[in-house]
Structures are given as structure tokens and as C-alpha cells.
């Protein structure tokens, strides 16, 4: 697993005193303050980096708005950021994807969430103080970005791309993109340890669904939250041709895109 993308609890624990490594907790403020958090973490709640108005590329908040959030948290473009939540990393992965899209070069997902950390390391209720910064974003160009549009996804359906639906079974059966493979994002997480499964197990699991590094992969869900986690995991495993359909099924249906319904045994890797 590439530690430039996903880092272990031990990796982070050994760097708590490194001022270049900054920890971002994306849980709600009441959890951060009332339950506790990792030492030195700053709170950037999930709802603060979503744009419900859908003005700027789906639910992304916009480069300037996101830069303001990071600046107010005392973060700089040169920092190594490690994000975590307490939901197996799905909300933190959305932060990672957003930061990458807006040009932060070194942002990583913690392998394991708050609960996993709390089993092995100390937490705190003390809030670290950081001076605000003037964060200057550098958004990726359309050519650099993994985000793809409705038209690009429609084109991918005509090729040998594997289109991956990361939602739950009942959602998948209600409506899905034509030929989509269902791969629940939670399949990569070990429920007992709350960490990612071993790399070899992940590769075998993905291959059983036809999701292999040699293929073009297009990810979607409903509103692009759950695919963030799958995107980060695939990237950490070395997949190079992974596309992220930000509009997901919500946009697809709004554009009257063709869908399939009902059960498909083959899509479950059977």
C-alpha cells in the first residue's frame, strides 16, 4: 500500500511531533470537542467542504472556499496532511479527493479511523492553536483532474471501461448505469480492525469483480461521497487509470441517462 496515499496508525503516531505533518479531523465539531480527537488535529467538518448549491462541479465547494477553510485551519500548501473520521475513512477520503483536486500535493488518508486510533494510542480534548495562513489554491486542469463529466462517462460505456457502482445492493438494483459492476466501498474495510484489509486480499477482491489495474475504471455512487474512498484505495494500490464521476447517479438521472434495474448476479462477482 502506497504510504504517499494511505498511512498507517503507526506511521502517523511516529510523526506527531513533526510540524510538517498536519492532522485534519473531518467529524462534526461536537464529536471533535466532546468525544476527543488525535493530538494536534484541527477540525474541518465534512459539511464545510460541500457545496449544496451544485454551482462548482457537483458537491465540491470551489477552490477559493476550500482554500479559506484550510487557511483558517492554519494549513499551508507545503504541509503533509493526514485526514481521518470515525466512519472507516469515507468522509476523510472525500477531503483527500477535494484537496487533491484543488492542488494540495501531499494529502493522505489515515488507514483506520478515530476508533481504531483510540484502541492503540492516546487521544485528547485539548484544541491545538495554529495561526491562520493565506492559503493559495492551485486547482488541477481538466486534463490533470480525475473528475469526468456525464459525456465522458457515456463515452466510457462504449469502451472496455469497467464502470463501478459503490453503493448498497438495494440502491444498485433500483437504478444503475448500464453494465455497471457493484462493489460496495465497505468491502475493503475489515470490520474488526476498522482498517483496510491486507493488500493481497484487496487485489483478489477487486479482481473478482473485474476491477483490475490494466482496465480503465470509472467510479460513481449517488453524490460522490462513497466513491472518494474507493478512489483513494485504488490509487494506493497503484491503479493509474481511475476516473471519478463527480455528478454520479444524481446527475446521470437528471440528464435522462439510460439505466438498468433489478438484480444482476454477475455484478456481484459470482
Automatic annotation (TrEMBL):
SMART domains: RHOD (SM00450). InterPro entries: Rhodanese-like_dom (IPR001763), Rhodanese-like_dom_sf (IPR036873), Thiosulfate_sulfurtransferase (IPR051126). Keywords: Repeat. PROSITE patterns: RHODANESE_3. Residues 17-126, 157-261 form the Rhodanese domain. Gene3D superfamilies: Rhodanese-like domain (3.40.250.10). This is Rhodanese domain protein. It comes from Natrinema altunense (strain JCM 12890 / CGMCC 1.3731 / AJ2).
